[in-house]
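## tool: complex_structure
## caller: assistant
## args:
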Amino acid sequence: MAFTRATGKHRAPGRLTRTGAKAVGIATLATTGVIGGLASPALAADTGTPAVGDTGLTQVIAIENVLAERIDAQADAQQHQADVAEKKAEAAAKKKAEAKKKAEAKAKAAAKAKAKAKAARAEEARESAVRAARSAERTRLGSFQLPVAGSYVSTGYKSSGSMWSSGSHSGIDFHAASGSSVVAVGAGTVVEAGWGGAYGNNIVLRMTDGTYTQYGHLSSIGVSVGQSVGAGRQIGLSGSTGNSTGPHLHFEARTTPSYGSDMDPVAYLRAHGVSV
Ligand SMILES: [Zn+2]
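## result:
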């Protein structure tokens, strides 16, 4: 790739040897009288001086030196151009390699992110399927379950707030977007289904063990009083009716059908084998 040249190729002593040899040749020419015809105009102008042999030779050698210098300069310039071109090519190659490396890293990162997203989606689908299967199994066995599948408690029992007439929460709130399926936590009979004042649309079930459960702020009610329901049977859809600041399910466990007979709903559900 690199165009290298030994430094001083055109310089002394090589040049001296060459010019010396040429000088001998010119001297030979001079003695035969041919020099006058071959010389440059500058040389020709000197042909009139007496010491033609000496001055002619001196000038020939001087011109030889000038030519050699020019060749040197030309070679240097060419070498410089070659060096510059080589450096440019190297820089371009380096830039290209860096760009390639960058593009490869970018592609790798994109592929990784894609795989991660796919794995997350698969995990989500798997968890959803597990939840549904667990819920179906609990329904089949007639065992207790969460009133909103896969939900969690967003406001705890007995938490204080101006929202509640008693000054504290008589139940627990389950996180639920409006329209989520609300199911009977266990088998029972509908004893109340309708408007419940601050509870909005609400349902009260008498469970087979004699306890009661209540479901409030529903957007719609799907059962009527006297109806028997199995565990996991959908009884309505969640909403934000009554004294509510947003969609959720208010759930209570009671010893009687009436407000004020509440017990800890989390302890109640856990006692019935529900993980909450
Ligand atoms: Zn509540």
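## assistant note: The radius of gyration is 52 Å. The helical segments are 14-32, 35-38, 41-46, 52-141, 265-271. Handing back to user.
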